[in-house]
Amino acid sequence: MLKPRESIAALDPYRSPIASREGLSLDLNENLAGCSPRVLARLRTLRTADIARYPQREIGERLVANFLGVNPEAVLLTNGVDETLCLLFSTYLREGCELLFSDPTFVMYPIFGQAFGAELVRVPAGENFAFPAAEILSRISPRTQVIVIANPNNPTGTVAAPVDLLRIVKAAPDAAVLIYEAYFDFYGETVLEELPRHPNLFVARTFSKAYGLAGLRLGALIGPPEQIGFIRRFCSPFNVNAVALACLEESLADQDFVRDYVAQVKQGREQIARLCLELGLEHWPSSANFVLVRVGKNAGELVAAMQRRGIMIRDSSSSPGCQGCVRITVPARQQMNGVLDATRQALREIRS
Fold it and tell me: Which of 305, 316, 314 is nearest to 341 (CA)?
């Protein structure tokens, strides 16, 4: 009888978290302003040959390298950051060795780690989801092969200080340390400039958030050229589709669009924070494009009440330490007043 590897058979099924595409989706941390108009204009110029031919990923990697100010050999474009994780783990994570991360965090870390047969070393976040730097340092062992840190973190929006991240990188020279900067644009702090000094440091970026290209699935892994070369040996040469690559140049070029959306998010975070104070809800300061809010035992009811009003928010109760919490993506400027009013109405409904 055909059988999968034991590590795969033991995985709990993980399906798309999309509840509905009707109404306003504030549950997936997507860019609610959409993508740049320049990207749409580029899409309209695509020819039959652009679709029929295999894509040239290297052209896009040079664009990203030039934008970031790094060596093109240090950049690997991927089919979303999920593929980044898969490639990095498959390159460095041996079965039975350790994957180290703090909890709560992005759900795909433990899924990929378990799939590759790693031992998951989960370090609980500190009070108010503070980054547990000292605890992570204490858990590094000779069996630690990959350490992954989301900064800013998902689902909390909290951040780790660069000095703490570099302490971890230095303390684990034989482990690949990935700093997952999916929400970098809303935060502004990066360890990218530290790459030349640390041969075990990697940074992941995505075009799904601030750039509004989630549907095109485009991510980037940046790291030491020698190590990226090893990962490149395993990566398919045609992993990034031609449409995503065609849109990349215009997306990078329109930084005015990105800055405007980031400004909307920062203003929207403050408005959601004020709403939480008004409604007596605990929340955490966020450096991402979402806010984590503790509703309590009625979290599921609030999600349902918002859905009846055409707005999807994420129940985060299953994440460690997030019982009774919901995660709300910051809407675009023109959507904000409607979301605030709907939240007030929904909360009144469930409290009554």
Answer: 305
Question: DSSP assignment of 299-325, as one string?
Answer: HHHHHHHHHHTTEEEEE-TTSTT-TTE
The radius of gyration of the chain from alpha carbons, rounded to an integer in Å, stands at 20
**pLDDT, tens digit, 9 for 90 and up, residues 75-117:** 999 999 999 999 999 999 999 999 999 999 999 999 999 999 9
Q: Which CATH superfamily is domain 18-32+256-351 in?
A: Aspartate Aminotransferase, domain 1 (3.90.1150.10)
> pLDDT for 14-25, tens place per residue?
777 776 778 899
Cα 133 to Cα 89, 124, 130, 153, 202, distances in angstroms: 22, 11, 9, 14, 18
Model-level pTM? Answer: 0.95
Q: Does domain 37-253 have CATH number 3.40.640.10?
A: yes
Residues of the chain with CATH 3.90.1150.10: 18-32+256-351
